[in-house]
Amino acid sequence: MKTARPGPSGETIDTPQHRALASASRVAILRLIRAADTGLTGAEVAQHTGLHPSTVRAHLERLVQAGLLVKARASGGGPGRPAWRYRGAAPEPAPAPYRTLAAALLEHLATTGGGVPTAVQAGRAWGRQLGSTTDTPGDEPTGGPVDTAVGVLRRLGFDPRLAPGTGRHRHPGDSPAAGDAVEVHLHTCPFLELVGQHPDVMCGLHAGMVSGVLHAAGAPDGEAVLEPFAAPTACVVRLRVPAPGAPDGQR
Questions:
Q1: pLDDT of 36-49, one tens digit each?
Q2: d(C-alpha 108, C-alpha 226), whole Å
Q3: Residue-wise DSSP of 110-157
Q4: Does residue 117 or residue 94 have the better pLDDT?
Q5: Are 76 and 164 in contact (CB under 8 A)?
Q6: Could you give phi then psi for residue 66, rounded to 5 degrees?
Q7: CB neighbours of 83 closer than 8 A, spacing ≥ 6?
Q8: Which helix (H) or strand (E) holds 71?
Q9: Model's pTM, two decimal places?
Q10: CA-CA to 54 of 20 to 30 Å: which in 17, 28, 41, 151?
Q11: At residue 40, what are phi and psi to the nearest 5 degrees?
Q12: pLDDT at position 5, please?
């Protein structure tokens, strides 16, 4: 029987990551995807490597299960359900106990807990709590629902940045006004490794959270749509914050 080799401090190094990387093909695929700013679909990986698409899919899923890749629906804009797009996982995952708990919760939501709609609802409740507790000592002042949402995303570790020319927010230091169409790029995801097999559920949770923050910050009709990998090196959150008193068709 093969015995796992201990490392210098005595811990086992026979991890799922090491086992996943025992294949030269998976190592090559991982390097290929990490080098692509916007990630790659399975078809693109097959084209670059010459491997059969079914073989590529098996390798990709093994890398996802090992926490080395994360997948989300590609934002292609074409008809039908978008393909999966794969990106390298964050190099510093959340602490193991939280990762295990979050994985269990995601699995429950995805299988018996109501899926994406329930995840969105749970995210909204979470966001309303976050949005209603931002004006505590030490928090940066907020200038409106969008600023509050960006501040919450920043504190959670998403490295959010408003897209240049978004709505009337065209210069550094300007605050987005109600009624603007606002696009926020998320350059990191502190929960990236937790996405695993249920990226739609995790992204739904995050989109709901941002909507909940908007609601708590004074935009009860505000909504957020999260498009994973929609920009180079970033996921994109599109915020809709109707101006107070706007007609229903503009809300």
A1: 878 899 999 999 99
A2: 22
A3: HHTS-HHHHHHHHHHHHHHHHHTT-SSTTSPP--SHHHHHHHHHHHHT
A4: 117
A5: no
A6: -80, -5
A7: 41, 42, 43, 73, 74, 76
A8: strand 69-73
A9: 0.60
A10: 17
A11: -140, 150
A12: 41
